[in-house]
């Protein structure tokens, strides 16, 4: 028998975006139905951010003792238990899972339905045997790994981020198709855990990042033994279990396992969006600056399916914006200029706002680019973490972008994210007193580099200082 529910808000998808909206709305007194057809917590908890960073942590410990000698300690070659590393990954997921659980959200007052949802009209969705009529809908169904139609792919086992963490037997030779963040993170992690690794990239590895900073990361990965083949489009795959060959324009590459990491596709196929009068394309729902559907004003989108940057923190940001809009009727336009992202290789690569190339194209002669090398930071020298660079793009005294490659770049980018989000000037960074010695002084040194020509290379300043010195008692 079909059941019917009327509610204030129906959220479809229990990943970062959907959970943020549901938790905020329910705690503020709205009647909320939360629908999830797969795992609570979505991709981030189960297949993405959490398991990948846990595996990277295991790999970092495996690698830690290999270069001990410069510190006065004997090198130690690790005995890696690949299955035990995967146990660590699962323990981390299990530790965090209760925060995203059905029980927690029911405790917050949400009605949670564990079925796939589909629109049956512009005011209703159906999930299993339940029809939900809502004043507002939030579609937050996220994205899934993209597996392109490469000839022969259906004849071999293809891993994605949704299956690689379940693999218990260590690959002898992992082939990775895709040289973006996911591909490079998993390549380095598996290399450090004892696998031979070849990355096959159809264009340039880490091609969306500043090439000068990407080179810092790629040089280190190659030094660790990761083979990176660029400009090698995968044309065909052949072989069978344990002996897979990827045929490319740059030659053939054979390994024991294959990981596909070429990008993601938004999850819209099962939603019957046409019946909900919701316009979309392969990039996601068509929404305005308020994340509201351009064709059905009852429907909003959040996270990957909103068609923008595909990051967990963006999904959470969208959730916060929508709670503000849906609960209080306040304008809540989503912006992107202050959104940071990080590739968690070693060294890390972080970006917020415009890259140097983007800033030059947009601002031309008004742009100033300031730099600071990690080798000039005292803390980096004490820990021998001196390979790295920060670039800050500045227009009229305000940062419009920052790019960092180096140790803890993901932590260092936070200062620039805050500055850009709040419209702060470079003086806000240069005036900040930081504890010594810390890596954050790299940020302050970059801010100081912006003022150096104005203070120390200006004839006017020197003339004024000269006059003041003669006049002072």
From TrEMBL:
Protein name stated in the entry: FAD-dependent oxidoreductase
PANTHER family from the UniProt entry: MERCURIC REDUCTASE (PTHR43014)
Residues covered by the FAD/NAD(P)-binding domain: 8-319
Source organism of the structure: Loktanella gaetbuli
Pfam families associated with the record: Pyr_redox_2 (PF07992), Pyr_redox_dim (PF02852)
Keywords (A to Z) from UniProt: Disulfide bond, FAD, Flavoprotein, NADP, Oxidoreductase, Redox-active center, Signal
Oxidoreductase among keywords: yes
Residue ranges of domain Pyridine nucleotide-disulphide oxidoreductase dimerisation in the record: 339-446
Signal peptide boundaries: 1-25
Keyword hit for Signal: yes
InterPro entries with a match to the protein in the record: FAD/NAD-bd_sf, FAD/NAD-binding_dom, FAD/NAD-linked_Rdtase_dimer_sf, Pyr_nuc-diS_OxRdtase, Pyr_nucl-diS_OxRdtase_dimer, Pyr_OxRdtase_I_AS
Entry's family note: Belongs to the class-I pyridine nucleotide-disulfide oxidoreductase family.
Tree of life domain: Bacteria
Entry-linked Gene3D superfamilies: 3.30.390.30, FAD/NAD(P)-binding domain (3.50.50.60)
Cofactor: FAD
């Amino acid at each position: 028998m079909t059941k019917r529910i009327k509610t204030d808000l129906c959220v479809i998808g229990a990943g970062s975006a959907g959970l943020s909206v549901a938790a905020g709305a329910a705690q503020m007194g709205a009647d909320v139905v939360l629908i999830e057809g797969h795992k609570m917590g979505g991709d981030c908890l189960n297949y993405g951010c959490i398991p990948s960073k846990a595996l990277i942590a295991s790999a970092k410990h495996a690698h830690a003792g290999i270069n001990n000698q410069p510190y006065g300690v004997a090198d130690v070659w690790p005995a890696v238990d690949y299955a035990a590393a995967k146990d660590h990954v699962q323990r981390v997921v299990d530790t965090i899972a209760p925060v995203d659980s059905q029980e927690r959200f029911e405790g917050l007052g949400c009605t949670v339905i564990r079925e796939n949802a589909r629109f049956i009209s512009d005011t209703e969705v159906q999930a299993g045997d339940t029809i939900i009529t809502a004043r507002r809908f939030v579609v937050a169904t996220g994205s899934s790994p993209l597996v392109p139609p490469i000839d022969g792919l259906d004849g071999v086992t293809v891993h994605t981020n949704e299956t690689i963490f379940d693999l218990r037997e260590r690959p002898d030779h992992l082939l990775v198709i895709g040289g973006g963040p996911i591909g490079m993170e998993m390549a380095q992690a598996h290399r450090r855990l004892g696998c031979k690794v070849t990355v096959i990239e159809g264009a340039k590895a880490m091609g969306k990042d500043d090439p000068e900073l990407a080179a810092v990361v790629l040089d280190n990965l190659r030094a660790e033994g990761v083979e990176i083949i660029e400009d090698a489009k995968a044309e065909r795959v052949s072989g069978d279990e344990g002996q897979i060959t990827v045929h490319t324009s740059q030659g053939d590459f054979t390994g024991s396992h294959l990981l596909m990491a070429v990008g993601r596709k938004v999850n819209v196929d099962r939603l019957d969006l046409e019946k909900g009068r919701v316009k979309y394309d392969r990039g996601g729902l068509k929404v305005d600056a308020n994340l509201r559907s351009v064709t059905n004003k009852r429907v909003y989108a959040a996270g990957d399916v909103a068609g923008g940057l595909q990051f967990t923190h963006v999904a959470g940001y969208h959730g916060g914006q929508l709670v503000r809009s849906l609960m209080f009727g306040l304008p809540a336009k989503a912006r992107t200029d202050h959104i940071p992202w990080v590739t968690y290789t070693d060294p890390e690569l972080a970006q917020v706002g415009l890259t140097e190339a983007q800033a030059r194209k947009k601002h031309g002669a008004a742009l100033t680019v300031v730099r600071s090398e990690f080798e000039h930071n005292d803390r980096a020298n004490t820990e021998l973490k001196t390979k790295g660079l920060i670039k800050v793009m500045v227009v009229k005294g305000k940062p419009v972008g920052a790019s960092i490659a180096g140790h803890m770049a993901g932590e260092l980018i936070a200062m620039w994210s805050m500055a850009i989000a709040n419209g702060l000037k470079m003086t806000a960074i240069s005036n900040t007193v930081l504890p010594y010695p810390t890596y954050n002084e790299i940020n302050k040194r970059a801010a100081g580099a912006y003022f150096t020509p104005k203070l120390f290379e200006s004839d006017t300043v020197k003339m004024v200082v000269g006059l003041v010195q003669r006049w002072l008692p």
